[in-house]
Task: inverse folding
């Protein structure tokens, strides 16, 4: 049940180090590969990454999701907003890339609830959903916002 | 040929990207990589309690596969925005019925350039994308924006 008094609520910030080995693991997972030997070497070899125009080992485009999950984002959201995990669905995800994230960066996530609304009619179960939109800024150790994330969750 | 703003035109198709068939092992690997340990994606007993027949793939894994499709066409450093809407669930391969379940677990990502414009002093390209499985069922749609040199 969405509690609209939570609109505007800010979650406590969380910080994580972007581990080099975690980048290769993520790159292998989304490429559906069994070993890092089979992925693009920019995700594990700094020299190759620099030659390709990066200042370090970059992260795959959806790596930002792990800045949410590895800092207990799901549990934060479920507890603070009272979601039922069995009814929760991820509806939309958007990344706005303002900079790059590299291996060794220290990333702080600042997340807040920006929208809550109902979709459909309560009398028509299956068509009715409660929508919550979260916005997150990912900020590196130099205070630069590197990615803005917008996540839409629905509870059926 | 290097991709540049000048050699990309509205209506151009991104190269079609076809994934391997997604297995439960891939879901476990993605859970460990991303930190998303929602039991719906690896624990069949939990999936049944909430009324599903199977564990299902993480929506974010399908978006990750779409991301892989994008960066195999244009390097990540040019990416400015990536948006996905999740449309359908993906069941992994059942090894005891692999022949009949591989198609539902194989993701095909297609994309098409729809707009060229200037923003923030950069030449940008917007490309709409769709991910379907090999039976034609839609998993995700969305768009990405790149600023090519």
Result:
């Amino acid at each position: 049940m969405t509690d609209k008094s939570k609109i505007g609520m800010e979650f406590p910030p969380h910080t994580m180090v972007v581990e080099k080995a975690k980048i290769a693991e993520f790159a292998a997972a989304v490429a559906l590969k069994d070993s890092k030997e089979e992925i693009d070497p920019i995700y594990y070899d700094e020299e190759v990454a620099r030659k390709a125009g990066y200042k370090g080992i970059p992260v795959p485009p959806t790596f930002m999701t792990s800045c949410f999950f590895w800092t207990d984002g799901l549990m934060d959201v479920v507890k603070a907003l009272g979601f039922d995990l069995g009814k929760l669905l991820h509806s939309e995800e958007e990344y706005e890339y303002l900079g790059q994230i590299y291996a060794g960066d220290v990333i702080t996530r600042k997340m807040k609830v920006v929208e809550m609304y109902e979709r459909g009619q309560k009398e028509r179960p299956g068509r009715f959903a409660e929508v919550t939109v979260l916005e997150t800024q990912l900020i590196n150790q130099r205070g630069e916002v590197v990615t803005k994330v917008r996540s839409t969750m629905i509870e059926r | 040929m290097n991709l540049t703003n000048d050699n990309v035109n509205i209506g151009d198709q991104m190269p079609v990207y076809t994934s391997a068939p997604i297995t439960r092992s891939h879901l476990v690997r993605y859970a460990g990589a991303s930190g998303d340990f929602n039991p719906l994606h690896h624990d069949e007993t939990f999936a049944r309690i909430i009324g599903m027949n199977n564990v299902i793939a993480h929506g974010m894994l399908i978006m990750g596969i779409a991301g892989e499709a994008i960066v195999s066409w244009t390097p990540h450093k040019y990416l400015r925005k990536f948006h996905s809407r999740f449309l359908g669930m993906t069941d992994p391969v059942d090894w005891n019925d692999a022949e009949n379940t591989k198609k539902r677990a194989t993701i095909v990502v297609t994309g098409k350039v729809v707009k060229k414009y200037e923003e923030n002093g950069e030449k940008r390209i917007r490309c709409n994308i769709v991910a379907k499985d090999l039976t034609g069922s839609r998993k995700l749609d969305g768009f990405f924006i790149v600023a090519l040199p």
